[in-house]
Every structure is written in C-alpha cells, then in structure tokens.
Amino acid sequence: FFLHVLKLSFFCTLVVFSVSMTAEQKLKNCNEVRAAYSSKGFNVNDVPNKGVNGASLKVCPQGFSCCTVEMEEKLSQQSHTEIKAPVSRLSTNLQSTFRQRHDHFDKFFRELLKNAEVSLHSMFVRTYGMMYVQNAELFKKFFEALTRYYVSGGAAVNLDSMLSDFWADLLERMFRLVNVQYEFTDAYMECVSRHTEQLQPFGDVPRKLRIQLTRAFVAARTFVRGLTLMPEVVNKVSMVSASPSCVRASMKMLYCPYCSGQVALKPCQNYCLNVLRGCLANQADLDTEWNNFLDAMLSLAERLEGPFNFESVMDPIDVKISEAIMNMQENSMQVSQKVFQGCGQPKPSKAFRSKRSIKDTGFNGRFRPYSPDARPTTAAGTSLDRLTTDVKKKLKHAKKFWSTLPETVCAGERIAPGDECWNGTAKSRYESVVIGNGLANQVSNPDVDVDITKPDIVIRSQIAVLKEMTSWLKAAHSGNDISFETDEDGSGGEESGSGCDSPSCDTDMYFSTTRSPVKPRIDSVGSPSAGGGRLTRKRGAGALRAGPGPARSPLEIKVAGQEEEENDQNWWSEGENCQRDFKKTAFRTLDYPP
C-alpha cells in the first residue's frame, strides 16, 4: 500500500511539472503576441521576445507574462476604443435612420402645403378670374401663416386668431362685392366684423376646417419634432465617456489573454454581458422613458394615418374654401338683410351703374368630381400612409435599444461559446451570475466597479428631455398643442387645440352640406368663427355669384368625432366674445364688359 501511494504521488508530481513546463515553454516565445500587438498599430518592440515577470502589471494576472506595464496602458486605450466602437456604430445607424425619416416627413408636409397653395391658386384663377387675382394676397398670407405655424407652432402663429382674421377679411371683401350698389364706411364694416360669428355667412365650413387644421398641424409638427429629437438624444448619450473602471474591465476582458500568450482566446458570453452591463449601466436607465417616447410616437403615427391625417386636410382645402364662398353667395341676401338690420341701411353708391345687375358682378362655377379614395403622390413622391407604415416599423425596431446593447455587442465573433473561453483569469467556464440592467443592479457586478450613487448627468438630462417630449406627443394625440422651442422660433407655454380626448376621435362620420341657409350660431370650441373636420378629397370650385343660384351637388366632408356634442351649442347669441380687429381691405368694384 505504501509503495502504491508513493507511485501515485510521483505520477501527480510529474503531471504538474509537465503542465508548468508547457505553459512556461509557451511563454518563453512571445512571437504570437508580438504579431497580434503589431497588427493593432503598436510598436512591436514594446513586446518582450519571451515571457517576463508580470508583478508590476496593474490589470492583468501577475506572474510569467508577455505583457509589460507600457503595453498594458496602450492596450487599455485600445480596449476603450474597441468596446465603444460597436455601441457607436449602432448609435450612428439609429441616428441616420431617423434623420432620414425626419427629412422625408418634413419635406412631405412642406410640399403638401405648397401644393395646396398652388392648387387653390390655379383653381380660383380658372373659376373666379380677376375677382380672385385682385384678392390673391389674402390667400397667399393664409398659406404663409399655415407654414409658419407648421414650422414654429403657437409661438409664431395663433392658429385660431389667424383663421378668424382670414374668414372675417374674406367676409368683408365678399360683402362689398355682393353689395356693390352700396357704399360702406370702415365703421360700418367694423360692425359687420363684430357679427361674423353670429352671421356664419360661410356655413359650418370654418368651424370644421379649424378643428381639423388644428389637429392635423399639431400632430404633424409634433411628430416631426419627435423624429428630430431621436437622433439628438442618441448622439448625446453615445458621447458619454466610459468610466475608468469600465476601461479597466474592458482591458481585462479583451487583452489580458495576450499576456498569457493566448491571443485568439475570446471572452465568455456571460463575462462579456457583465462587463457591458456595468459599462452601459447609465444608458440602460434611459430605456424606460425611451420606450414610453416610442410608444407615444407610434400612437401619434396612428393618428396621422387616421383622424388627424394632414394629407386629407390639406389636399382638398381649396374645395373647402370654395365651398365656404359658395355658402356666402347662396345666402348673401339673407346675410345682407341681417347686417342691414343690425348695422343700419347703407348709402347707395354713386359709382354704381344702375344698368348693371348684381348677377353681372359675379361668376358661375361648378364643383368637379374627385375620387375621395385617390391617394396622390405628388408631395415628395410619396403619400402619408407609406411614410407612416415605414416609420412605424423603424420605431418598433428601436424599442429597448439601450437595454439590449450588451446582448447586441456580446454576440457573434466577439465571444467564445461554451467553456473554451476567457473568464477574466484563465481559459475556463465563467461561474459568476449575470446581473441585471441599469445602475441599481450594478451594486453586485463582479467585474465592473460602478458607483450607483452617482448617475450620469448627461443621461439624466436626456431622460428628462424624453419625458417632456412624450407629454407633447400625448397632447398632440388628443388634438392639443403645447408649444415647444424650435430652431426657427422661440417657445411658448400656451396649450390649445380641439381637446379630443375621447374615443370618438377615431370614429369617422359623414355628412353633406346643403344649399339651404344655416342659422347663425356661436361655436364655443376655440376661436368662435372657425371649425374643422377631417375632409375627404373632392376637388372643384363653387360659384361666386350674388343671391341664390342653381342647386349644387352635396359635398361629402369627413369629420372626426364630437360633431353631435358641438351641435348642441347656442344659436344666435348676440355679440358674445366677438370683439376683434380686422383688416379693412375691400373688393374693388370691377368693370366687366357687358
């Protein structure tokens, strides 16, 4: 028995001696390390020809080593670069994706505005001729104001006031036109302006148009602002520097195998995850607000496809304004009589030629049929549906971007599968438990020292930015505008809009306008003389003529919610909240050949 134990002991001693001799023999030659080190762009002379005493090393295991302190410092810098590279690449791709989507949406919305202006001008020139041309400035300013509102929001343009001024100015010009046999002083026209909301000369078009312009513009500009914000946040977060403890852990994971002569050895996956979760702990804390922001963007994208469709509002706006003009013409006698009763009988015009009838001063026009299902692609060569379908896929793909960065980086060729991997000290299984994401979880990180009491200031500020933008997106989802700073203008804090919070906003109703006069009333939603409703696409122009005319075909208008509720508002409420300052530019009396 004694001899047996002695033989076994001798055998074990030989095995240990043999292994030690093998490792020592491998480190006697550092040629592989020299080649790998040189391939990183470093001076090959930094690497010893054979293993040296590594007692002075600060990061890697001390002992017989192919590394020096100088090499360790250079490889630490290299590891910082290499650990940051895949994160930077992913961040850059994300920035590029949403910068492109922002440019696509912004170009599309701007071209829609321009196309709507060109379409109205072309149609009104054909339909109303010189009568429109001599008053084209009113419509030009209307579209300029819409563009400013799209760019800068309520800080630059009060949409309700702008629309009220537009309709009041249009009423003054048309009132003079349909009553060319009278002379009107500025004081008289001021009286007409004060009663615009009660008269409702343009029917219900201003109210419906105001609601839908507000909802569509707020949704569009807020969505575009969200697309602008995403690359900004990603860029600022990706620029956050790695902590010294992260650099140290990265060096140990990526290059300490060099010191033991194992240049091809990759880290264990779980080891890599713990290092990356420690290095990206602050970034992972961004994930909650980032996902909330993306959910709000997706919800607003649904609105853009549905009841707040910018394209569906802007494309037929020429038809809507022409319909309003038609309403005024058809009800001009009733409107004039109400004005004469309230403001007094005007004096006859000396310049009016008695042989000219009122009908001779107007134009006749007809609506032309237009398919509401047509989806034009003239703006930026695409349509809103196509843009939103594309961007929703990208938004969904971007969710959990920050919390999944460690898994994304610690994959493929960057790690070694199974147990044949570097665990931080040797080629063996990584035994530690993988810790969770976020700063709080790093208290138990075995590989990276993280001070959980000191969150990164830059990332905390971006969390606040995302939270604020999410509140704007949610407000826009309900049809409300919360002004925010833009590069083009300042900021404001006033909130306005349709206040559509109910599910009825998602329900589309249809109604037809008729040629029968509409009893004037006051609308309590926003500006008194304005309105909205999501509109279907029909094109054409109404007749501009004095007095009643031939019957016209009903024009379908698609509206989003709240119509029934708003129909219960007061009728003909005298003079309440209707004091405004309006321009006093009148239609010029035109001399047309008999």
From TrEMBL:
Its main location: membrane. Keywords: Cell membrane, Glycoprotein, GPI-anchor, Heparan sulfate, Lipoprotein, Membrane, Proteoglycan, Signal. It is found in: Cell membrane. It is a lipid-anchor; GPI-anchor. Coiled coil: none annotated. InterPro entries: Glypican (IPR001863). One of its GO terms (biological process) is regulation of protein localization to membrane. Residues 1-18 form the signal peptide. Residues 497-508, 541-552 have a biased composition (Low complexity). Belongs to the glypican family. Cell surface proteoglycan. This is Glypican 4. It comes from Sander lucioperca (Pike-perch). The lineage of its organism: Eukaryota, Metazoa, Chordata, Craniata, Vertebrata.
